[in-house]
Amino acid sequence: MIITTEQIETFNQSYKDEHKDQFEFVAQQLSNKSIDVASIIQQIQNFQVAIPSWALGAGGTRFGRFSIGGEPASLEEKIMDVGIIHTLTRSAGAISLHIPWDIPQNPEAIKSLAADHNLVFDAVNSNTFQDQTDQEHSYKFGSLCHTDAAVRAQAIQHNKEVIDTGIALGSKSLTVWLADGSSFPGQLNFRDALTYTLDSLKAIYAYMPDDWKMYIEYKPYEPNFYSMVIQDWGTSHLLANECGKNAYCLVDLGHHLPNTNIEQIVATLLWRGKLGGFHFNDSKFGDDDLTVGAIKPYQLFLIFNELVYGLSHNDSINPPLAWMIDASHNLKDPLEDLMQSLEAIQLAYAQALIVNHKVLGAARVANDVTQAQVILQDAYRTDLRPLIREATRHSGGALDPIAFYRKEKIRKKLIERRGLETIATGL
Ligand SMILES: [Mn+2]
């Protein structure tokens, strides 16, 4: 299924006048504040977020899964779906693979297919949180932390194979998320579990090429409910430090206890140059994996405010980050849901870009708390959606990607092509 430039241009034509009015209004507002509108548009255009290969079909809960229809059944079809999102939004120029769910049989062919859709391969993700049919040892009681050296060796070997796959595809990073932990007091020796995990991570790290990065993800609970071996950013930071300079912490927005100040974690990790990657989603209670910006858009803005400040700080030692959406789609069409997430990310980023840090810094020095709040909320409450649309239009995308997707009946076409019963996820 190919969306042509002409189709997008024709579609944009019908929105042209409305968009022009809205864009000129906000551009004038920003210019009045001496904000360089063209530069912000360019930065939005440059901001690319990876789509994970497991997010293109219906997810599910512990209680059930409801098919969406037309889900991609192969890696080729998943790449095609990310291609659709990227063609319409021009902001999803990368795909993040999950191994072993998406092992490419022919890496060269897959690489060139992705290139046809203007996609590159972002971080590859290992999976030691479930057993595969052909594996010798079970991960029921852990993987990199397991009490049995043979299980740890198997999990290390799996991560090495994931790296090999990534190398073949041109990826440059490995994300490690561990389900390891315990569900009952007494089950695990905390100290031994950490020691084993560190030794295992070091073995994986040593296998990585020099220009690769390792991202260590943390999570406070689930699937284990008493303890997780890498429960928080502090543990992740400790392990990353011990592994070496190419190991970093990965922040997944849903992997925090309620009300955690995530923006402060971001600021702290950026200060140490140890923030490697970001998994976007939103949540009300836990790791809900909802659409980005659906529940707490102000928090998302505050996080981006720290990201923009931390990365642009003149003393910044943090490398560029790997951005990815890590959400689950139980109710909405996954492609529509992902496009909503992308817009929310772009919006929070744009809002953060218009914060005047000079004025904010002065308010802080003067301990003018009221003014500090005014500065942040003023940026947050400025409707920058026309700016996002302008950036998308500049890049060749659709002014309203979801409206285009619906008008062209893309889901219907996918169902006609693939059927109603295909299942995309590996779970
Ligand atoms: Mn994640």
Unreliable residue stretches: none
Structural Rg: 22 Å
Q: Helices and strands: which structural class?
A: alpha/beta
What's the overall average pLDDT, rounded?
96
SSE diagram, text form:
Layout: H1 5-32, H2 37-46, E1 50-52, H3 75-89, E2 94-96, H4 107-116, E3 120-121, E4 124-125, H5 149-169, E5 173-176, E6 181-182, H6 190-207, E7 213-217, E8 227-228, H7 233-243, E9 247-252, H8 262-272, E10 275-280, H9 297-312, E11 322-325, H10 334-353, H11 357-365, H12 369-380, H13 385-394, H14 401-407, H15 410-418
Parallel strand pairs: 1-2, 2-3, 4-5, 5-7, 7-9, 9-10, 10-11
Antiparallel strand pairs: 6-8
Helix pairs in contact: 1-13, 2-10, 2-13, 3-10, 5-6, 8-9, 9-10, 11-12
The structure holds manganese (II) ion (MN).
What would you note in describing this structure?
The protein is of the alpha/beta class and 427 residues long. The chain has a 6-stranded parallel β-sheet. The protein has a 3-stranded parallel β-sheet with strand order 1-2-3, covered by helices on one side. 48% of the residues lie in helices and 9% in strands. The structure holds manganese (II) ion (MN). The site of manganese (II) ion has 5 residues, from loops.
Summarize the structure.
The protein is an alpha/beta fold and 427 residues long.
Features:
single chain, 427 residues, 3-stranded parallel beta sheet
